[in-house]
Design brief:
This protein is mainly β. The protein contains three helices and 42 strands. It starts with 16 loop residues before the first helix and ends with a strand.
């Protein structure tokens, strides 16, 4: 039953996915003794464990058996679940391993992944990934990948071993890492993925269509018969201590010593309470700089662990519908979607500088068919930022087969100033597995004394999306009132109606399949009009034609027509005092880009664009390369250049980014990020040594420096030493 399924009862390439899913059942078996994580699978318990095999490709040859099969065994005891892996490979010298770091790039090397749906709700789960050298990656996934939090960290371990017939792994996942229901007899959703990188091949135990990924837990198999599972006391206490040595310009060195702690408590088997005191994020990698050539705020992602864990609970609406090749660099004029709750508004200034947090509390998890989230943070006073309390409340109910409805409330209460609140409701539906419908509406509440002017304080959004093996289409319409003021969100524009349409075709012509994996011509249009008959504000169009080769090399050509209607002069380059004057501008960019095989020892990313730009001309170039000497040393360097000539002046910007990553082992890393930005005339460097001295316990040594690129003068320097120690019960 486990080795042959309905997937193999069909002709090659033809799979009855529903029948295959029902067939993929793995009976749980208790271990007869301890399991040593050495990757050998030589304990007696493994010999009697049932085997999950018969993996099926979903890419490049959907529905066909994997080139080299994978055998997976599963055991459990009173404290953990164990997964034994035998990834067959007659040519172990061809195994690709590019790095050893924690949260490694799972797409650029050989690897194995498992997804576990502990509540068996076919929506949410945990993902764990390894490579043949024992590097680890984990993620907390909700709504079948609509939110995938790869910054979540769980307590688990792995041992691996490369042999003449392939590679082996033993994975241990303690039950205290997972949340699950209180039932005495448990059935979990589970699926396994094998990545054979030199063939750029993905295969799965429970087969998936090419358009789906491992997060599609509604198509996972099951592990049945888990008995007597207990999560333990499920209490974690994580204190920290740090020393911080700062120097600003010519001032004396400022020494600071601090301490704090985080507590995590499992209130129930499905709910977790987190509490943090004197929260510190000094070990977080610096933001990657950007050059802003628009009149709107730039978006920088959240990187802080406390806000990333369980962040999927607080997601509101369907998320950003933008795309059209933007992930690969083709679309550079994409507007960032409005985000109702954006945690970077807490503890960070608009410039990205840290504002200290006094304490915070959060409850997240599931109760029956409900997802629950409650967050309260007290931010300290610093400079012009007053002491402020932030609250976010989220409640979401599962309905139908894979849909949900929910409500959310946000409250920002600065000391000595008026409050800001926002309330919203959303509904997300999926039909026929490939069609999604999403609706959201929200209203802000801010005293008129703070937000004056005309317009309403409402936001609404409706969208749909369809993705099949060939056709992909989506559409969206949203309205943002001129007085909609969501200070705990990210709202780049107000007072606009925004409509978007997208259509593309994923084509895989058989006559070229030896070297061509897919070509994907697509078109996208996005329109912003001012509310109440105010006319057009912006229009962006994309006509793109990308192709992906069998080794993952990506090439794209296209054109990006734009219309911008400017009412007020805005600064496009403040250092050189260059402006764009009011008026209507129609301009168009033509581009070509190429990203070579990322699994190769040396890979490149190149882009060239040229065309009109407002009332002048713009050329932009990106030249970058990554060199992987082995799994220990990775180097990368890129330069993004804008050469712009406008009626108000001409300027050239360079944004140089260099990275050096050295991995002594899977527990000791050095990462260096060096950036040079001619727009700000600054060099900046961020160097981090991370020693994982026990699970989820680290010793960090961080060095940060900023210098004026013209004079070489020191602007700031910081040396931070920090130690964390996790106590788990």
């Amino acid at each position: 039953m486990l080795g042959a399924s309905a997937a193999h009862a069909q002709p090659a390439g033809v799979v009855d996915y529903e029948a295959a899913r029902r067939d993929r059942r793995l009976p749980a078996k208790a271990a007869a003794g301890p399991i040593e994580l050495d990757g050998k699978l030589d304990e007696a318990s493994w010999a009697g464990a049932p085997i999950a095999k018969g993996f099926v490709q979903n890419d490049p040859r959907e529905g066909e058996p994997a080139t080299y099969d994978t055998e997976v065994k599963l055991l459990y005891d009173d404290r953990a679940i164990y997964i034994g892996v035998f990834a067959k490979d007659p040519d172990p010298n061809g195994i690709i391993i590019n790095e050893l770091r924690k949260d490694f790039n799972t797409g650029s090397a050989d690897g194995f992944q498992v997804v576990i749906d502990t509540f068996h709700d076919e929506r949410n789960g945990y993902q764990f990934a390894i490579n043949p050298a024992g590097a680890k990656w984990d993620s907390q996934m909700s709504n079948e990948g609509r939110d995938n939090n790869a910054n979540w960290d769980g307590i688990w371990d792995v041992g691996t071993h490369i042999a003449d017939d392939g590679w082996y792994a033993e994975i241990e996942i303690p039950f205290k890492t997972l949340k699950f229901g209180p039932e005495q007899l448990q059935t979990w959703g589970i699926n396994f993925q094998r990545r054979l990188r030199r063939r750029n091949e993905n295969s799965y135990w429970s087969p998936l269509r090419r358009i789906h990924q491992l997060s599609r837990v509604s198509m996972a198999g099951t592990v049945e018969g888990l008995q007597g599972l207990t999560p333990g006391a499920n209490v974690r206490v994580k204190p920290y201590a740090l020393g911080n040595f700062n120097k600003l310009g010519g001032t004396a060195i400022d020494k600071d010593y601090d301490a704090g702690f985080d507590v995590k408590y499992g209130v129930t088997s499905g709910l977790t309470w987190d509490f943090t005191v004197n929260t510190d994020f000094s070990q977080v990698e610096a933001d990657q700089q950007q050059v802003n050539l628009t009149r709107f705020s730039l978006f920088f992602p959240e990187k802080r662990d406390f806000f990333l864990e369980n962040s999927g609970v607080f997601q509101f609406g369907a998320g950003n519908t933008g795309g059209g090749g933007g992930a690969n660099g083709g679309r550079q004029n994409a507007s960032q979607d409005m985000i109702f709750f954006f945690s970077r508004q807490i503890g960070l200034s608009a410039a990205g500088d840290s504002i200290p947090l006094l304490a915070g509390s959060r409850i997240t998890g599931r109760v029956g068919g409900w997802s629950v989230g409650a967050l309260n943070i007290q931010q300290r006073e610093k400079d012009v930022s007053p002491s402020t309390n932030f609250t976010a409340l989220r409640l979401r109910r599962d309905i139908l087969a894979n849909s949900d409805v929910g409500v959310m409330m946000l409250n920002k209460d600065p000391q000595g100033s008026d409050h800001n609140r926002a309330f919203g409701a959303d509904a997300n539906f999926r039909f026929f597995r490939d069609l999604t419908l999403n609706f959201a509406a929200a209203r802000s509440d801010t005293p008129v004394a703070r937000i004056a002017g005309k317009g309403d304080d409402w936001y609404s959004k409706s969208s749909f999306g369809y993705r099949g093996n060939v056709w992909e289409t989506r559409g969206m319409f949203q309205t943002i009132g001129a007085r909609f003021n969501d200070e705990m969100g990210f709202v780049p524009r107000v007072g606009v109606d925004n409509a978007e349409g997208y259509l593309g075709a994923h084509l895989r012509p058989k006559r070229f399949q030896r070297w061509l994996r897919e070509t994907f011509p697509h078109v996208q249009i996005e329109n912003f009009t001012r509310r109440n008959g105010g006319g057009l504000e912006s229009r962006y169009m994309d006509w793109h034609w990308p192709i992906t080769l069998q080794n993952s090399t990506f090439i794209e050509v296209g054109t990006n027509p734009n219309v911008e209607v400017i009412d007020d002069r805005f600064t496009i380059n403040s250092r050189r005092r260059i402006f764009v004057e009011p008026g209507r501008y129609e301009f168009k960019e033509h581009f070509i880009l190429a990203n070579t095989n990322s699994a190769a020892p040396f890979s490149m990313n190149l882009r060239y664009g040229t065309g009109d730009f407002y009332d002048g001309y713009r050329r932009n170039y990106t030249v970058g390369g990554t060199f992987r000497l082995n799994q220990h040393l990775n180097l990368s360097l890129s330069d993004s250049i804008n050469d712009i000539d406008l009626s108000s002046g001409s300027f050239v910007t360079h944004l140089v980014t260099g990275r050096v990553n050295y991995y002594f082992s899977t527990k000791v890393f050095v990462n260096a990020l060096v950036q040079y930005n001619t727009d700000t005339n600054q060099w900046s460097s961020n160097v981090r040594l991370d020693i994982i001295h026990r699970p989820l316990s680290d010793i960090y040594l961080v060095y940060n420096e900023r210098r004026d690129s013209r004079s070489g003068a020191l602007l700031s320097r910081a040396v931070i030493a920090k130690m964390t120690y996790l106590l788990a019960f």
